[in-house]
């Protein structure tokens, strides 16, 4: 794990993990289902607590840079059990996200092949809406990005930067044309969150919008590979603000060209539909190519922070030693990366049981959104608890270190709690469907319960010191390859 990454690399990792083009391309229809024409307002409103979470991350990172990020900070500030749960939901949530994103990537590749005139291979129809076929193609993509993640973060971020440049040029170009030439009249009500029809729609839409922004914190997962802890913070914040701009441009552009009904009908193919409305072939296929680049980059950038979060947990013996095996040449947690890929592939295959890709995406987003709100909220609360002494240091520091983090945490906890209640009462039976409340609660509930069971084993079986102190292990306790290819110890994190 070489200390060779800078701000640009952090931006590349965070922006790729957030995957703005993918979120815009396949998610705007989902947001429209809850917010209607108020999707831009929803994206702006949800940015407020997310910005508070990002500032909390930056403040904690200055004091204790660690690739475990929330797992380490929550464990020290609140306690080891919520700390472990933070690391656990990040780890498992990312693996689940990779499994579903693999299918999305496969679907986009199939759409691209269809555009090129290839509709079947050996009698098998290449249907982008088929979960099974999309998953099979996605597994190939998952293997490919895992290999690049193992062979070095630096090379991976260079590739991601070029992919980002291409997809953003295409996205902004088509969205710019849509804003100018669209025939749907603009309305100031698009920016009015109070025009959303119901509290349920607002809460569900807010959690989905939080899921849109999810991923900027990946910049903090490479702290031990970054030249300065402040570089990771700047990278994450720059990427987050850029995502807000891209999401708003995308939302306005889609609504200038498409009615709400068209957004809902096109679903994951909305960006492709936009391209076909604005340009003839072959130019109409450029948005699809950008979406394909975004999906690949998102897969790759999900592998990187997940493996490094597991490495941080393994250093504390809350996970097994296999997760902290560092490749002698590339300096990456190779064994953990391969394991994550294998588990994600297994989940992707099991998910074929949900027949429609749209249902698969919606179920994943709704379920993971709750866990994202949980661990973001816990991390912000850890910031407020750790720096509560700032309440006596003046209004500016009190606002920055305590009030904003606490308000952000309570907002996400409130949204999550409301949705849990809503899901629990919306259905009177269980069914494997994205509109069944009990089914939507099953995944996050199972994730948390399994995490508590693994934590119990780590505490009483492995006797992990983390459960006595709540402190994460510093990066200098394991040997890491240095820039010259030799073996040395990474510098200890500084206190600030």
- Outline the biggest β-sheet: 2 strands, antiparallel
Report the mean per-residue pLDDT as an integer.
Answer: 82
What is the CA–CA distance across the termini? 23 Å
Arrangement of strands in the largest sheet: 1-2
Could you tell me the number of beta strands? Answer: 4
Overall, the morphology is: globular
Q: How many individual helices?
A: 17
Structural class: mainly alpha
Task: Give the helix proportion (percent range).
Answer: 55-70%
- pLDDT below 50 for ≥5 consecutive residues: which ranges? 478-496
Descriptive overview:
There is one protein chain. The protein has 496 residues and is an all-alpha fold. Helix content is 69%, strand content 2%. It has 17 helices and four strands. The chain has helices spanning 7-18, 20-35, 39-63, 70-77, 80-115, 131-150, 153-181, 199-213, 229-257, 260-266, 270-278, 286-315, 334-350, 357-386, 395-426, 437-461, 466-469; strands at residues 120-121, 124-125, 479-481, 487-489. A two-stranded antiparallel sheet has the order 1-2. The protein has a two-stranded antiparallel ribbon with strand order 3-4. Strand 3 (479-481) and strand 4 (487-489) form a beta hairpin. Helix 4 (70-77) runs antiparallel to helix 5.
């Amino acid at each position: 794990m070489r200390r060779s990454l800078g701000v640009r690399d952090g931006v590349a990792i965070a922006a790729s993990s957030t995957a703005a083009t993918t979120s815009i391309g396949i998610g705007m229809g989902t947001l429209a289902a809850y917010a209607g024409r108020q999707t831009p307002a929803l994206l702006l409103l949800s940015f407020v607590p997310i910005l508070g979470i990002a500032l909390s991350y930056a403040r904690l990172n200055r004091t204790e840079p660690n690739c475990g990020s929330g797992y380490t900070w929550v464990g020290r500030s609140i306690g080891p059990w919520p700390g472990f749960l933070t690391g656990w939901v990040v780890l498992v949530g990312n693996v689940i996200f990779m499994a579903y994103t693999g299918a999305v990537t496969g679907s986009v590749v199939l759409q691209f092949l269809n555009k090129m005139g290839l509709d079947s291979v050996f009698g098998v129809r290449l249907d982008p809406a088929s979960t099974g076929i999309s998953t099979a193609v996605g597994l190939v993509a998952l293997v490919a990005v895992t290999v690049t993640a193992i062979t070095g973060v630096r090379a991976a971020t260079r590739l991601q930067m070029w992919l980002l440049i291409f997809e953003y040029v295409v996205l902004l170009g088509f969205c710019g044309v849509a804003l100018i030439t669209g025939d749907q009249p603009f309305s100031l009500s698009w920016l009015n969150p109070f025009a959303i029809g119901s509290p349920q729609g607002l809460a569900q839409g807010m959690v989905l919008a939080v899921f849109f922004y999810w991923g900027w914190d990946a910049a903090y997962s490479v702290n031990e590979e970054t030249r300065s802890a402040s570089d990771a913070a700047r990278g994450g914040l720059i990427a987050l603000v850029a995502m807000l701009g891209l999401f708003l441009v995308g939302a306005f552009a889609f609504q200038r060209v498409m009615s709400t009904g068209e957004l809902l009908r096109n679903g994951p193919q909305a960006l492709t539909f936009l391209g076909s409305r604005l340009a003839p072939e072959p130019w109409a296929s450029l948005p699809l190519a950008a979406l394909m680049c975004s999906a690949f980059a998102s897969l790759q950038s999900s592998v990187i922070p997940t493996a490094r979060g597991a490495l941080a947990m393994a250093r504390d013996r809350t996970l097994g030693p296999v997760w902290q095996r560092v490749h002698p040449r590339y300096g990456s947690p190779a064994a953990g990366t391969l394991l994550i890929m294998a588990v994600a592939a297994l989940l992707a295959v099991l998910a074929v049981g949900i027949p429609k890709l749209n249902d698969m995406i919606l179920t994943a987003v709704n379920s993971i959104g709750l866990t994202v709100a949980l661990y973001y909220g816990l991390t912000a609360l850890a910031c407020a608890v750790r720096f509560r002494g700032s309440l006596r240091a003046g209004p500016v520091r009190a606002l920055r270190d305590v009030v904003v983090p606490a308000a952000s945490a309570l907002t996400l906890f409130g949204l999550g709690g409301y949705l849990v209640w809503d899901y629990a009462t919306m259905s009177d039976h269980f069914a494997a469907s994205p509109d069944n409340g009990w089914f939507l609660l099953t995944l996050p509930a199972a994730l948390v319960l399994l995490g508590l069971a693994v934590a119990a084993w780590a505490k009483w079986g492995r006797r992990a010191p983390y459960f006595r102190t709540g402190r994460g292990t510093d990066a200098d306790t394991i040997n890491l390859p240095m820039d010259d290819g030799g073996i040395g110890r990474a510098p200890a994190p500084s206190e600030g």
